[in-house]
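Exercise: predict the fold of this chain.
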Amino acid sequence: MPIEIYLNVAASGLLTGLVYGLMALGLSVIFGVVRVVNFAHGEMMTVGMYVAILAFTTLGLDPLVMMIPIAAILFVFGYLMQARMINPFINRPEHSQFMLLVAVALILVNLQLIFFGPDARGVQTSYSFDSYQIGPVIVDAAKVYAAVAALAVAGALFAFFRFTLVGKAIRACADNYQGALVVGLNVKHLYALTFGLGAACVGAAGAMLVPIIDVTPTIGPAYTLLAFVIVITGGLGSMPGALLGGVLIGVTEALGGVLFTPSAKSMFAFAILVLVLLFRPQGILGRKTS
């Protein structure tokens, strides 16, 4: 095939990968601070996707316009979930946390099946069939807008953790739990804020994906698994690693689907995961634990 086809596919994968990275960024933030693995991550994203679809079908609101309101809704949901449900499990065995969050995931999937049914749903915006050409590369406008929005949200999150007092307090909790308690930080509140931010990221990512893919209640587990692959590839707890992992997986899946078959694209994402675990177990940008 002409080289232009591979360039187009790689560009499409890169743009989608940035949205994947934002999705995984929420999981990475939660684990990096709270040390809890959110096994309901993909299911929370489908909640955001369905809210975007409802806003589009009933009010005519563009999913990207709804990105911030959906992120706010998921923030509140995540905050309350951490404050009321997960905080009591922080010091319990990991298998208890695992069962709790798996139960939440199953509840979310079945609630969505009850309310929306099993059929796939999507939206067609005014720019669904638009595209941009940059030299030999042609990219979908919907993917360009989603990727730009993902970079903006990720940049805002980086700035929040680096420059705000609350962000620095959250980083202090992640670095030294006991020290944060000694200096008087409200760790439970900061944990809930962190979980809310992670949920907001995945909600925003869901709104960005709505113009690109169709949603069903049962796609949540697949995206939870994809988020794990991305986070482990990039490095657990590394925010830049989550974005890098998302781009790497997005491009790999896109090229794998063209070179072989679309049904085999996930195989290449897991192949990268295996290679990373073999040669750099801490992830591409992860830090070794002493």
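Check your answer against the key: The longest helix spans residues 3-34.
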